[in-house]
Amino acid sequence: MKAEAAKTFKPALGQVLECLPPHILSGGLKRGITAIACALAIMSVPDNAAAMPWSWDLFNQPNHRAQKEPAPPQPEGAVTTAGKPYYAKDRDAAARLKNPFPADNTSVERGKARYAIFCATCHGDGGKGDGLVGQKYVAPTDLTSDYVLAKPDGDIFFTITNGGLAIMPGYADSVPADDRWHIVNYVKKEFKGK
Questions:
Q1: Contact 169, 163 (CB under 8 A)
Q2: Would you call 101 exposed, middle or buried from its count of C-beta atoms within 10 A (0-12, 13-18, 19+)?
Q3: Separation CA 177–CA 192 (nearest Å)
Q4: Which among 20, 31, 56, 179 is most buried, taking Cβ atoms within 10 Å?
Q5: How many alpha carbons fall within 13 Å on the CB side of residue 54?
Q6: pLDDT value at 2 more than 50
Q7: Rounded CA gap, 121 and 134, in Å?
Q8: With a threshold of 0.70, does the pTM exceed it?
Q9: d(CA 21, CA 194)
C-alpha cells in the first residue's frame, strides 16, 4: 500500500516541479521545496491569525442593548445640563408637581407659540378639539372643558409628556420640558371661560 502511494506521489510531485519557474529550482530540489514550504507557511498565517483568541474580543465583549434595560438612576447631587428634570412615575405623583414658571405674559406667549406648533393640529386653535387632525380622525379632548381646566398643572404636564389615555402620543421627545410647562400656562390661562 505504501509502495502504491509512493508511486502516485512521485509523478504528482514531478508535475508540480515542472510548473515551477527554473530560477526556483536552480539551487536544487531542496531549495525549491523549501521556498514552496515557506510560501505556503506565509499564506497560511492570516488563517491562523484569524483563529487566535483576540479575534473574538469584540464578539464576546459585554454590551448594552438599547431600551432593553432601564436607564441607570441619576447620581445624587448631579447637575443636569438641561435644568431640573421633571419626573413623575404616575399621574398621581405628577399632580403634585409644581409649575416652575409663573403664568405671566412671557410664559403664556411662549406657551401659545409652542401650542400652535405641537398642539393646534389636533386640539385646534381654540382648544375645542377641532383641529385638522381632530376633524379627520377621532376628536381629541376639549381643552376648554371644566374637566381639563380643573386639573392640576402637573397632571396636564404629565399628559403632554406621556400621552393621553388612548390616542394622544407622548411629546417628551419633541417638546422640551420647560416648553411643556409654558403650554400648561397657556391652556390654563387662555382657555378658561371659553
A1: yes
A2: middle
A3: 23
A4: 179
A5: 2
A6: no
A7: 7
A8: no
A9: 98
pLDDT digit string (tens) for 54-96? 666 666 766 767 777 777 787 887 766 665 667 778 888 888 9
Biggest distance spanned by C-alpha atoms of the chain: 110
Q: How many whole angstroms separate alpha carbon 80 and alpha carbon 54?
A: 39
pLDDT at 24 over 70: no
Mean pLDDT of the chain: 79
Set out the domains of the chain in order of their start, with CATH numbers: 2-56 (no CATH), 91-190 (1.10.760.10)
Contact yes or no for 178/106 (Cβ under 8 A): no
Nearest to 166 by CA among 128, 124, 137, 125: 137
The cell numbers describing 75, all together, are 447620581
